[in-house]
Amino acid sequence: MLELIALVVVVLILAWYVKNRLPANYPPTPPTRLPLFGHSHYLLFTRNSGIEAIDELFHKYSKDGVMAFHLGSFKLVIIGSFDLLKECFKAEDTNFRQANKENLALAILLRRSKNGNEGIIEGVGRIWTEQRRFMLSTFKDFGFGKSDMERMIKDEVVFFLDYIEKSNQSGPIKTINMFNTAVLNILWQMIAGERFDYDDKDLKNIFELVTEAILAAGIKPSIAFIFPWLRDIFPNIDPLYKNVQIMQNVKDFLDSVVQEHRKTFDPYHIRDFIDAYLLEMEKTTDVDSSFCKTNGDEMILQTLIDLFFAGSETTSSTLSWAVLYLIINPEVQTKIHEEIKTVIGLERTPDLADRADLPYLDASILEIQRLGDTVPNGLMHANPFVGFQLGKYYVPQGHTFQGDFSEIMQDPEYWPKPEEFKPERHINDEGEVVIDQRIIPFSIGKRKCPGETLAKSTIFLVLALLLQRFEIFPIDPNNPPPNEGICGITRIPKPFSFNLKRRS
């Protein structure tokens, strides 16, 4: 009997290897690929997050800036070559999000969506085109990229600086979720026509949950990747189910905002993005459109989820890294302040038009983005329908492609002493800022972040006004916070506290 069982096991393993045989020119992988598990065993005993552990394996086993890694049914190709990343992320055949039905089922689960093809982040084809175009054109109508947007940012930054200065009188300022409300308010005024109070307990709770979910997503491989069918039988054993519950809380919150808008909706008086969306749904008669009533009710929530996450988390994380690097490098902070003082003075509020005259601040922001690496892998691409030639490697259909932005933005063969915080590396001999194409905090290709303009404007104005008014310093001058991050979907600094001193 035991011999028969052993024979069956051997036959099944051989059948699995035959079915999952890799082509000769497949990207390099870690050496041991197990049936069903793939390479998951490499992540089970690491103390690092899953993303950091895969990054270590990438340095060890990749060739030509490419490595494949299998998490059960989830077949991942990691790209750390800038040229190959451009090639992949600009291709039509990889302009998708879900590589196979298992990945799609996971996306539906995590986003609490109906079919996984909704919104701006996960949408593909006509849905993605319609939603992205509508978002950009509508935001433009409400001031996106115009002087109205700049005014909203500056007004919010002034509110924020007054708030943290007052808070600092009661004790050190904590960086965890410090910038989220201010950053979200800038976007939320266009989305819902209102802003949140900085002490709003419900919003603070949501931000805490969102941060927890984003960080938890990078900790360990989920059983949902390895045995997709088990997640339905034993949902509570999968840590990703906590993320599902968090996402449902966010979705319920956003749905309540939409319902309030429906009660007061007037098609002749469009107040904000949500009103404009409801009007578009009302006008649309094409049943195949993503705005048609049967589709639009779900689509508006998924689009708002995308804006809520992307519009607050990444910019807030970048600003937290900025505070950390400015504390660790006080000479940089002093030099930025002196530049602002010389060009603008201490009375006039900085404008976006001042950016060209503040090259050291601008270069410092680029260096913060390079080293902070807020979204270390970007959003995934996939080739669900056809194989893809990636340089000299062939990737069969059904794979997910992910960038290794850290490898690109901190490559020692390209960046001299990449671990050093050095804004001067972005300034040429004429004193002008040079934006290297390998600085890719907003990704590249067709799926590049559509909110790049707003994010850049927000980061610049927050730092310009902050450093014009204050000096930032650690609680203990002899013990600055460590230059360490916590890595999930996004990468944030380890929580720390600091103090402010108003400049005279």
Automatic annotation (TrEMBL):
UniProt keyword terms in alphabetical order: Heme, Iron, Metal-binding, Monooxygenase, Oxidoreductase
Cited Gene3D superfamilies: Cytochrome P450
Residues at which heme binds: C449
Keyword Electron transport: no
A Pfam family the protein falls into: p450
Cofactor section: heme
GO cellular component terms attached to this protein's record: cytoplasm
Gene Ontology BP terms: organic acid metabolic process; xenobiotic metabolic process
Superkingdom, taxonomy of origin: Eukaryota
GO molecular function, one term: heme binding
Family per similarity comment: Belongs to the cytochrome P450 family.
Matching PANTHER family: CYTOCHROME P450 15A1, CYTOCHROME P450 508A4-RELATED
Protein name: Cytochrome P450 CYP3031A1
Originating organism: Tigriopus kingsejongensis
Classification of source organism: Eukaryota, Metazoa, Ecdysozoa, Arthropoda, Crustacea
